[in-house]
Amino acid sequence: MIGRGVRAVLTGMSPRRVMMIVSLVASWCVLWGAVSAANILSGALVALLVTAPGLGDAVTGGIRLGPLLRLTWIVLVDLVRSTVVVAVEILTPGDHSSESIVAVTVPPDARRHMLFYTAAITITPGTVVADTDIEAGTLYIHLLHDTDVAATDAHVQRLAELARRAFPPGADHDPVPVADAVGDQS
Q1: Which among 14, 106, 168, 171 could disulfide-bond with 160, CB atoms 3.0 to 4.6 Å apart, if both were Cys?
Q2: pLDDT digits 0-9 by tens, 41-71
Q3: CB–CB of 115/172 below 8 Å?
Q4: Which CATH number does the domain 64-168 belong to among 3.30.1370, 3.30.110, 3.30.70, 3.40.50?
């Protein structure tokens, strides 16, 4: 019975939407700090509503496995490196952090996936996306250890590019208008 219900929900869903729902549910569980039945079910409900046809951008297009695997690898490496850096910071007497907030602007064609890489940045210890401006394509990232702003910018650009390549929009998707990309002055 449950199998039929799941199949009924998944019928007609594109692989892209399924991947987006899985990613959103995983982010939901990370934000709540536990993987539990309640978190999975509530995350799935929220993800289904957020990705419902007719709400926001269409969830069409495909999934490109190569860029998705590279993106996953980069995020996993970031998690391990950041966890070690934060653990050393905690165990070392004194404050050795050099906190800052860095503004990073991504290209217009990568903005459709801003939620995806914003979640990937935020789950990494020592970083949090403090604010976003979707219209301008700007993320304001709080860094616990700011050693190289240019490297941070390049890293976020890489995440955005891989997310864009991993989840390309469908052929029926209009590109982001240029006026939106530069800020409509009218």
Answers
A1: 106
A2: 988 888 887 777 655 444 455 677 788 889 9
A3: no
A4: 3.30.1370
